[in-house]
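Page 37, continued from 36.
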């Protein structure tokens, strides 16, 4: 029998303004690869966010194209759809107990996005996910060695640290916040929680069993009250309502076809009507044309008249200057004056001989020029007034023709189209009534589905309690020891590194205090080769997941890694300072077989889970994939992007972005 426990993602849907962008997922390994800046990493970041992550950074293509995200998943075999605002992390998260394409038929439950925002009135998304995964709710000691240590509530994000390596975390010295003492201590407690090693684990399980049993009892009482109400109001079953909705949709489709037919007959029944309509359209265009010409002529008259007044003012000023000179008298040209620069004597008479025109003559010439311009303006004003009168006459005639065409059009409409209008109005009314009835039935369906969800919740609680009781019994009888877990993980790490074929594979273990990998006797953060740290960090999360093959652990059964090839011969410049190139060279990190062996180990791991009938999902993001892997395991590729659209591949997650930008620029 297939074990459906844990989390399995079916699809990620980015609901966009132009279209929806969908990434499907399958059980086992899912590979997403392609060129840089095509949205690959965004897929894992959004999934992490949908599972309770904090604010996330998004590419411009996403922020400009997407409204919100929805993620369809199975949690312990039950379908859910999580819907969340991508741009406001503090808004409530909606969860539907159904598949994505059925959310319109169900009422959502709303959850606070974080533990901090949750309260007695509203559960947090983290609490919901932990509860649905049937994991105990615990408070972790921040200083485990102290009896009076402060405690912090376990969140789903704490567990996801052991399920998700983002691009910065792969091969990083700061894996699991190693440099932050407080967080590192909490992570060590989370490690114990994963393997049921906490001192309080038995009491936490007992509390969880009691909590679920009480919830089941409360829901049974609530179900009885709601069932009695539905019986009294004679609510139909979900099947009956769905059939009624189907019939309504068929009726609506038929009515819409009839309405379309009537509309076609209205517009095409009368050739005369079309002729009058064309004539009226032509008249309306002519009216607009002459209205524009009239406005242009009026503006010209106003502009020319204003300019003429300016000229008149200039003439008046010049005439005043001439009169002033005549009244005051001319300057004595015989007078000798001194030069203001060199103090030499100047004779004004000699200077004036250099000018052939006196100031008075110049003023008279300017006056004559202005008067000529005024006469030209008078002609222009007269011409425009003539045009304006002409246009007014045209407009008067056109408006008369417009009224006549409208009258003929109305008469033709009354005789040839009006009979259809009554029929169309009746059809529009019927369609509106069908829509209203459909909305009512849809609400009824949501109500009935909510009732069904309560019954399913009770059934799930019953099975959860039984499962928890078995876990408690097993824990009380054969509870794992820390030494056993560390020993098994050490053996798994040794086998993993043997598969990858690293050099000098000696002194391999998991440190019993920090729970971090040790290779050649060196603890993980002290390893200088970034490539070796990449191999180890991926393997560390993989071997923790492998433990679920043989025992119950508190992890959701999903592993996400971005980017597998980091430091393995394809290191970005931004990460070069975090690795020792000489150490990478000694390790022969660029050997493609190591890269290929990581993929094969993860694929073999998913096969082991499938053979055991257990749930496992591994999501891998990479810039490239070893040729042998991409060909042999091409069925695992769920998304492959090319920024240039080579070989018909989508250009990225937002696959219509280039087309949209080109249309916008044109």
């Amino acid at each position: 029998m297939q074990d459906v426990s844990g989390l399995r993602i079916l699809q990620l849907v980015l609901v966009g303004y132009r279209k929806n962008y969908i990434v499907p997922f399958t059980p086992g390994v899912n590979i997403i690869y392609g060129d840089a800046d095509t949205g690959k990493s965004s897929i894992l970041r959004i999934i992490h966010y949908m599972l309770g992550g904090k604010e996330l950074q998004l590419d411009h293509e996403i922020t400009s194209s997407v409204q919100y995200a929805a993620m369809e998943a199975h949690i312990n075999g039950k379908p859910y759809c999580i819907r969340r605002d991508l741009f406001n992390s503090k808004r409530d998260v909606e969860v539907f107990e159904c598949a994505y394409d059925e959310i319109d038929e169900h009422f959502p439950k709303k959850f606070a996005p974080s533990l901090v925002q949750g309260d007695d009135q509203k559960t947090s998304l983290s609490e919901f996910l932990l509860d649905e995964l049937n994991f105990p709710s615990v408070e972790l000691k921040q200083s485990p060695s102290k009896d009076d240590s402060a405690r912090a509530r376990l969140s789903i994000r704490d567990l996801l640290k052991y399920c998700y390596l983002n691009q910065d975390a792969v091969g990083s010295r700061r894996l699991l916040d190693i440099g932050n003492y407080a967080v590192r201590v909490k992570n060590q407690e989370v490690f114990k929680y994963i393997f049921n090693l906490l001192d309080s684990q038995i009491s936490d399980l007992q509390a969880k069993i009691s909590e679920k049993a009480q919830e089941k009892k409360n829901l049974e009482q609530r179900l009885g009250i709601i069932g009695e109400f539905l019986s009294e109001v004679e609510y139909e079953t979900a099947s009956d309502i769905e059939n009624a909705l189907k019939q309504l949709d068929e009726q609506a489709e038929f009515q819409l076809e009839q309405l379309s037919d009537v509309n076609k007959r209205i517009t095409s029944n009368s050739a005369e009507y079309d002729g009058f309509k064309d004539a009226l359209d032509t008249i309306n265009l002519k009216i607009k044309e002459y209205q524009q010409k009239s406005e242009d002529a009026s503006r010209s008259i106003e502009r020319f008249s204003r300019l003429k007044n300016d000229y008149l003012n200039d003439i008046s000023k010049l005439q005043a200057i001439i009169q002033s000179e005549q009244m005051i008298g001319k300057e004595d040209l015989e007078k000798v004056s001194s030069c203001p620069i060199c103090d030499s004597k100047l004779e004004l008479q000699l200077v004036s001989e250099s000018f052939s025109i006196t100031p008075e003559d110049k003023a008279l010439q300017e006056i004559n020029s202005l008067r000529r311009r005024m006469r030209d303006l008078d002609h222009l004003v007269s011409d425009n007034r003539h045009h304006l009168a002409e246009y007014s006459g045209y407009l008067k005639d056109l408006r008369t023709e417009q009224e006549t065409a409208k009258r003929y059009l109305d008469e033709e409409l009354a005789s040839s189209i009006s009979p259809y209008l009554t029929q169309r109005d009746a059809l529009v009314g019927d369609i509106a009534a069908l829509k209203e009835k459909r909305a009512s039935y849809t609400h009824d369906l949501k109500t009935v589905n909510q009732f069904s969800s309560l019954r399913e919740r009770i059934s799930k609680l019953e099975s959860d309690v039984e499962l928890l009781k078995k876990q408690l019994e097993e824990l009380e009888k054969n509870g794992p020891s820390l030494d056993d877990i560390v020993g098994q993980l050490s053996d798994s790490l040794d086998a993993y590194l043997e598969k990858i074929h690293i050099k000098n594979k000696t002194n391999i273990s998991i440190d019993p205090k920090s729970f971090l990998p040790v290779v050649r006797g060196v603890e993980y953060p002290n390893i200088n080769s970034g490539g070796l740290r990449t191999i180890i960090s991926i393997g560390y999360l993989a071997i923790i997941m492998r433990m679920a093959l043989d025992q119950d652990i508190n992890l959701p059964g999903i592993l996400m890694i971005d980017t597998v090839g980091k430091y393995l011969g394809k290191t970005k410049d931004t990460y070069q300072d975090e690795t020792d190139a000489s150490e990478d060279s000694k390790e022969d990190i660029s050997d493609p077989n190591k890269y290929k062996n990581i993929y094969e180990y993860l694929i073999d791991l998913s096969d082991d889970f499938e053979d055991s009938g257990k749930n496992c999902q591994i999501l891998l993001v990479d810039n490239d994939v070893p040729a042998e892997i991409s060909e042999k395991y091409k069925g695992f590729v769920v998304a492959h992007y090319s920024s240039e659209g080579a070989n018909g591949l989508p250009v990225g997650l937002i696959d219509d972005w280039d087309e949209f930008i080109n249309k916008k620029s044109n």
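The first helix runs from residue 40 to 50. Flag for discussion at group meeting. The CA atoms of residues 125 and 580 lie 41 Å apart.
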